[in-house]
Design goal:
The protein is an all-alpha fold and 646 residues long. The chain has 32 helices and no strands. Among the domains are: 157-249; 254-383, no CATH class; 429-595, Alpha Horseshoe (Serine Threonine Protein Phosphatase 5, Tetratricopeptide repeat), CATH 1.25.40.
Length: 646
């Protein structure tokens, strides 16, 4: 079978992707982008590549070496300019779309589908691909940068299927089989949902490849598919060793957000929520509103909340099983949908019960079913099935219906997608959007508070933290940040309450102990502050700021020896902490050790040459040393910079 080298579908698919996602390039880094890109040291170097593939960020991206390598490539080319990251995401999405086009088109040209769809294979494949490309549900996988893990996995899954399909038509299938196995491995290195790929290929083989290819090998059952392509399936199954290796290699802390060790959601609770989640996904396919970055989907609280959505999902699963037995080609679409959702929509506990990016690949099955179903329906209306192949009027009628479908539905979805991309412009815009659509999400209120506080807008952040706490009273991070924000606006007495509550809920919360110490120190309760700093250091001995602020508190109590010990530990852990060098120098000066004082203060001056406090402290020490001219120079510089002689 020879390819039709018409370039028009390729141009149209790429143009549709650019039109829908052109507005995404103005977006910045949001949500998990901050941890996995902005603060991810492992992407700062591209060589050696195995170092770039080894993410040291806590969380699941550590299991996605290919994703981390791609981020390192982006950083090498453009640093933290978000434009390049968006361009890569769009490139992956466009390639995935082109591969999907090839799969659908070639599948419709297989026997016996060719008799019914052969004349319209390219048109139907183009419609499916355009609708899938511009669908608003895809924005979370394309516009939200770190979710390139989903689109990269999708690209490699489609490439794996495409390679198996091409192999079935080839006299020399080994090369295509090797590409399929390689693609499966690359998909596994992108996201572990790729674990389902060998099963999906097996279902596709059994459903579509009977009697295909030069050898006319029959694959009408799973057994025959295995027997006829055993080497292929052994190769695909070998990639499961990668799955196991990535799981075993994850840091122990990463496991706390997924898997059976996750303590906040039981397997039964996770399973009970998924029927509602699946129905919500399906609703978004046909009516993509509201689109929400973060649902913080709740576990059902009552039996009826489980029963009502479970009934239609159980019916759908039963229909898929029936179709696999009686109409395997139709059944494959259902199996594809449920198999791709199985790892995240089953009994395996995950911290997040629902995310829209999980529909990136399953969406293709729903759109194929919808497009073929609509084509079949209007085919019955325009011409009898037996005359379709030779009835140009019936064929033309269906083609015009196809064009109208793409223009109306695809155009509408594309406009929604272009508009949705603008919500990702900044952390503030995306969290405001999330709250407006899903106001019961405490994490959205918290993250909006964090975004506002990062810009110094503490008065606006405070009500966000308070709302998060109202929705989730035992939210230690929100309590801690509320305490910080209250302290920043001078409401120190009020800050003590949430900080103490955060410590009560989570006694091992290092930041809460540290921030409580800061508030107490500002209120002049030095002994209580010292106790909180010491507890923070007991929990985390290498906390630089806990050492630094404990030293400041000890210095106020004239416990100079202990203060010096903690200042020195702070600068050992963070040699460029200029404030610690300055205060260490001032403390040595109090002890009468001018030599050590000058050493620390000169280091502080190197790090903060325009800080009046450093110049003032240097002036005092030099004056004590009798070096009056030098002292006057530093006093003058301190006054010039806005300070005063200490």
């Amino acid at each position: 079978m020879r390819d039709n080298h018409n370039i028009f579908p390729i141009v149209l698919i790429v143009a549709a992707a650019l039109a829908a996602y052109g507005t995404s390039f103005s977006g910045g880094f949001v949500f998990d982008d901050l941890a996995h890109i902005v603060r991810n040291d492992s992407i700062r170097t591209l060589w050696p590549p195995w170092e770039a593939m080894n993410s040291r960020v806590e969380g699941s991206v550590g299991l996605r070496p290919l994703v981390n390598l791609s981020l390192a490539g982006n950083f090498a080319l453009g640093g933290l300019s978000a434009w390049g990251y968006h361009a890569f995401n769009l490139l992956v999405h466009a390639l995935a779309a082109l591969t999907l086009f090839g799969i659908v088109r070639r599948t419709l040209l297989l026997e016996p589908l060719r008799a019914r769809y052969g004349g319209r294979a390219k048109d139907l494949a183009l419609i499916v691909t355009l609708l899938w490309t511009v669908h608003p549900l895809q924005t979370e996988s394309v516009t939200y940068i770190i979710q390139r893990a989903e689109s990269m996995m999708g690209l490699f899954l489609f490439l794996c299927l495409y390679s198996v399909l091409r192999a079935s038509e080839s006299n020399r299938p080994r090369g295509w089989h090797a590409l399929a196995i390689f693609s499966c491995a690359m998909g596994m290195a992108s996201k572990l949902i790729m674990v389902m790929a060998p099963l999906i290929v097996l279902c596709y083989d059994r459903s579509f490849l009977a009697g295909v290819g030069p050898r006319r090998s029959v694959a009408g059952s799973f057994r025959n598919a295995w027997e006829n392509r055993r080497a292929l399936y052994l190769g695909l199954a070998s990639t499961w060793f990668l799955f196991a290796a990535f799981l075993l290699a994850q840091p122990p802390t990463a496991a706390s957000s997924a898997g059976f060790s996750y303590e906040y959601v039981t397997p039964l609770q996770h399973l009970s929520a998924q029927p509602g989640v699946i129905l919500h996904y399906l609703k978004l396919v046909f009516w993509p509103h509201p689109l929400v970055l973060d649902y913080s989907w709740r576990v059902p609280r009552h039996f009826m909340e489980v029963l009502i959505p479970s009934i239609p999902v159980i019916v759908l699963v039963a229909l898929v099983l029936w179709a696999l037995h009686t109409r395997p080609r139709l059944g494959f679409l259902g199996a594809f949908f449920f198999l791709m959702l199985l790892p995240t929509s089953s009994f395996i506990p995950l911290a997040d019960l629902a995310f829209e990016h999980r529909m990136y690949v399953p969406l293709a099955a729903v759109i194929v079913l919808g497009v073929v179903g609509v084509d079949h329906f209007f085919g019955l209306m325009t011409a009898p099935a037996a005359r379709l192949a030779r009835d140009p009027k019936g064929f033309a009628g269906r083609r015009w219906i196809s064009y109208i479908l793409v223009i109306v539905l695809g155009g509408g979805w594309g406009l929604v997608t272009a508009s949705r991309n603008l919500d990702y412009e900044s952390t503030i815009t995306i969290w405001r959007d999330t709250i407006s659509k899903w106001p019961i999400n405490p994490r959205a209120h918290y993250n909006l508070g964090v975004a506002l506080a990062s810009e110094g807008r503490f008065n606006e952040a405070i009500p966000m933290y308070e709302k998060a706490i109202k929705l989730m009273p035992d939210y230690p991070a929100a309590l801690n940040n509320l305490g910080i924000a209250l302290g920043e606006v001078g409401r120190l007495e009020e800050a003590l309450g949430p900080l103490k509550e955060a410590v009560r809920i989570t006694p091992a919360h290092v930041e809460a102990h540290y921030n409580l110490g800061n508030a107490l120190l500002k209120l002049g309760r030095v002994e209580a502050a010292i106790a909180e700093y010491r507890e923070a250091l007991r929990l985390q001995p290498d906390s630089v700021m806990a050492h630094y602020n404990l030293a400041n508190a000890l210095a106020r109590e004239e416990n100079l020896d202990d203060a010096i010990l903690h200042f020195e530990e702070a600068v050992r852990l963070q040699p460029d902490l200029a404030e610690a060098h300055n205060n260490l120098g001032a403390t040595w000066a109090k002890k009468g050790d001018s030599k050590r004082a000058l050493k620390s203060l000169h280091r502080a001056l190197e790090l903060m040459p325009d800080d009046p406090r450093v110049h003032g402290n240097l002036g005092m020490v030099l004056q004590e040393e009798g070096r009056h001219d030098e002292a006057m120079e530093h006093f003058a510089k301190a006054l010039e910079l806005g300070g005063s002689k200490p």
